[in-house]
Amino acid sequence: MKHSYVTHANCDREHCPVCHGGLAVCAVCGAGEGELTTDCPGVPVPVEIRAQVYAGQVDYRFGGWIVRSEDSQPHPLTQFSHHEGVIA
Ligand SMILES: [Zn+2]
Ligand SMILES: [Zn+2]
Fold first, then answer.
1. What distances in angstroms separate CA 4 from CA 25, 30, 39, 40, 71, one per listed residue?
2. Cα distance from N-terminal residue to C-terminal residue, the chain
3. Burial class (CB within 10 angstroms; exposed 0-12, middle 13-18, buried 19+) of 53
4. pLDDT tens, residue by residue, 16-39
5. Ligand 1 mean position to 60 CA, how many Å?
6. Cα–ligand 1 centroid distance for 13 (angstroms)
7. How far apart are the C-alpha atoms of 4 and 42, rounded to whole Å?
8. Ligand 2 centroid distance, CA of 29 (Å)
9. Which ranges of 1-88 would DSSP assign to H, the alpha helix?
10. Who surrounds ion ligand 2 at CB < 5 A?
């Protein structure tokens, strides 16, 4: 699925990062610009995972998480997948 970006219908903030700054924030996964995966996972993404997306280590596309880092350390995504049960 595609990200559903947050829009403010009646924004009264004088300097809103979304309305005036053009910041893209997904209402579904909660990721902001720079943390956005290629496709939206459709569930809220924990801040640790968003940090890894930001760092370019992981991405979500074609219906699954893609780990880009080559290191062999246990990956937090394993725990995340198990915990959530909805992410394949
Ligand atoms: Zn999203
Ligand atoms: Zn706004």
1. 8, 10, 10, 8, 32
2. 14
3. buried
4. 999 999 999 999 999 999 999 999
5. 10
6. 24
7. 9
8. 18
9. 47-54, 76-84
10. 8, 11, 16, 18-19
Query: Which of residues 70 and 6 earns the better pLDDT score?
Result: 6
Whole-number Å distance, alpha carbon 15 to ligand 1 midpoint, is 24
pLDDT of residue 68: 79
User: Which tens digit of pLDDT belongs to each residue from 67-84?
Assistant: 876 655 555 555 555 444
The CA 33 to ligand 2 mean position distance, Å, reads: 15
Cα 86 to middle of ligand 1, angstroms: 15
Angle at 80 between CA 78 and CA 85, to 5 degrees: 100
